[in-house]
Amino acid sequence: MGEKDRIFNALGLKVALSGASYGDQWFAGSGDWIEVHSPTTGELLAKVEQASEADYNTVVGQAMKAFEFWRALPAPNRGEIVRQFGVALREKKDVLGRLVSLEMGKILTEGLGEVQEMIDVCDYASGLSRTLSGPTLQSERPMHRMMEQWHPLGPIGVITAFNFPVAVWSWNSALAFVCGDPVVWKPSSKTPLCAIACQNIIREVFQANGVPHGVSCVVVGRGSTVGERILADSRLTLISATGSTRMGKRIGQVVGARLGRTILELGGNNALIISDKADLTGALASAFFGAVGTAGQRCTSTRRLIIHESVYDSFVHKMIANYEKVKIGDPLDPKTLMGPLIDEEAVSDYQNALVAVRQQGGTVLYGGKALDPPPFGRRTFVLPTIVEIRNDAEIVQTETFAPILYVMKYRTIDEAIALHNAVPQGLSSGIFTDSVAEAEKFLSFKGSDCGIANVNVGTSGAEIGGAFGGEKETGGGRESGSDSWKAYMRRQTNTLNWGGEIHLAQGVEFHS
Ligand code: NAD
């Protein structure tokens, strides 16, 4: 049995699949099929029939019904079920990680890391289920007490990007589940197999616990069809969407028009400042992983290096030496450091960006082309690329979702921070420095304007314990750790009068 068959068997996948589920059945009646090809070899892995409008309504109707049961289950019991999901993921870690690599193209260690992130967030959510709490507040009225409660919100819509085909759903769903919300998941139509596999794992856990169908739901389909239905559906109070800024602007408009809530996790344009006062060995390792890891297809990928002029030449030289050694190829081969881009369209985006680079005064220092001859005869493999260019070039201001790193010089720390912040996006950022003053300035209100700001840590990769998300065109949403759970619940302020006498707030008198 080949690797693909082994993965498919272990995860309940077949070569023809239906794209809608609210429990143990998969169904679809749209007649519209999505073909899923391996980004590595081009092999047709499977085809999935998209959810039709009727399928979609069946699924959301079931989620509405399931909400009645799920919200009544005590939160720690919901947490216990999420804990069991984490155990099931531990058992399937290897095979699910391999599916991520097979379908999305990231190297195996990163595929496994993504499943580990799911396990971590399940553990986190399980503990959280016992501490979802609001404060008790002092009332201005005699013998009154005020408090805040958090209640389940209702079924929520989760729309995910191709590049984290399992982890992003789990950040949302593990929290939503303990908060009492059913989840309707629309995965990227580039990676539906990962979503179907996740649903197959969680539905067994739900069944073993007697949870009625509809708490975890999947609707596979394109953004323009199934995605648009989710946006317009006022039964889904919250839409948590991860993807490009272009997609986020559309979601903000449509969901905003019905006064629904959103969590938007959009594109980044992340920079790392390399100070002359830094440990340059650590800086090099972090910049290299940040720029080349996941073939530059992370929202937190390092896209810009802002390097002190005194160390610029030697640092760039060492980066190029590292780039020359990158082994590009099959992501499931343990020797491979960089897999393919997701599809040929992504390669065109990479090539178009390099045309713009040259038109806008940039110089390619390394890479800049597709692999020739292409591995597996596929046009999806490119060289990781380093470009010297000005920060204000138009192409540098946009996120190209490919391994292109822009390098530039600075003289003073204030200049470095100004360059750092002079882009429309605000997701992740970092500075390498051993100067306390520089580090503190970078983290201060005068420093990085991003949702994530690190010192002596790169831009790429985040732990689940912190709130994850970014500012400006990154959308302002927060997921995963800290108090991100609050977005998945509705807040209620309560005032209780235990004294019997009626007192109006602000001392207002009102008698007949
Ligand atoms: P994309 O915007 O093309 O698609 C993301 C998702 O949105 C997909 O499921 C897609 O089908 C859906 N979608 C597209 N149009 C829609 C519409 N009109 N209505 C509803 N849904 C719609 O993004 P992608 O290429 O899959 O992923 C890469 C992008 O995601 C990058 O910009 C990256 O930075 C971003 N991303 C951000 C984060 C974050 O946490 N900030 C994490 C991962 C990826």
Topology summary:
Layout: H1 3-11, E1 16-18, E2 20-21, E3 33-37, E4 44-49, H2 53-72, H3 75-104, H4 108-128, E5 136-138, E6 144-152, E7 156-159, H5 167-179, E8 183-186, H6 192-208, E9 216-219, H7 223-232, E10 238-242, H8 245-257, E11 261-265, E12 270-274, H9 280-292, E13 302-308, H10 312-324, H11 344-359, E14 363-366, E15 385-388, E16 404-410, H12 413-421, E17 425-426, E18 428-432, H13 436-443, E19 452-455, E20 467-468, E21 471-472, E22 479-480, E23 489-497
Parallel strand pairs: 1-4, 7-8, 7-10, 8-9, 10-11, 12-13, 12-18, 13-16, 15-16, 18-19
Antiparallel strand pairs: 2-9, 3-4, 5-6, 6-23, 14-15, 17-21, 20-22
Helix pairs in contact: 1-3, 3-4, 3-5, 3-6, 4-5, 9-10
The structure holds nicotinamide-adenine-dinucleotide (NAD).
The site of nicotinamide-adenine-dinucleotide has 30 residues, from α7 and α8.
Describe this structure in words.
By secondary structure, the protein is α/β, with parallel strands linked by helices. It has 2 domains: 3-266 and 475-491, Aldehyde Dehydrogenase, Chain A, domain 1 (3-Layer(aba) Sandwich), CATH 3.40.605; 270-463, Aldehyde Dehydrogenase, Chain A, domain 2 (3-Layer(aba) Sandwich), CATH 3.40.309. 38% of the residues lie in helices and 20% in strands. It contains 13 helices and 23 strands. The strands form 6 sheets. Strands 14-15-16-13-12-18-19 form a 7-stranded mixed β-sheet, with helices on both faces. The chain has a 6-stranded mixed β-sheet with strand order 2-9-8-7-10-11, with helices on both faces. A 3-stranded mixed β-sheet has the order 1-4-3, with no helix packed on it. Strand 18, helix 13 (436-443) and strand 19 form a beta-alpha-beta unit. It is globular, with a radius of gyration of 24 Å. The site of nicotinamide-adenine-dinucleotide has 30 residues, from helix 7 and helix 8. Nicotinamide-adenine-dinucleotide binds at residues 159-164, 186, 188-189, 222-224, 227-228, 231, 242-244, 247, 250, 265-268, 299, 399, 401, 427, 470, 474.
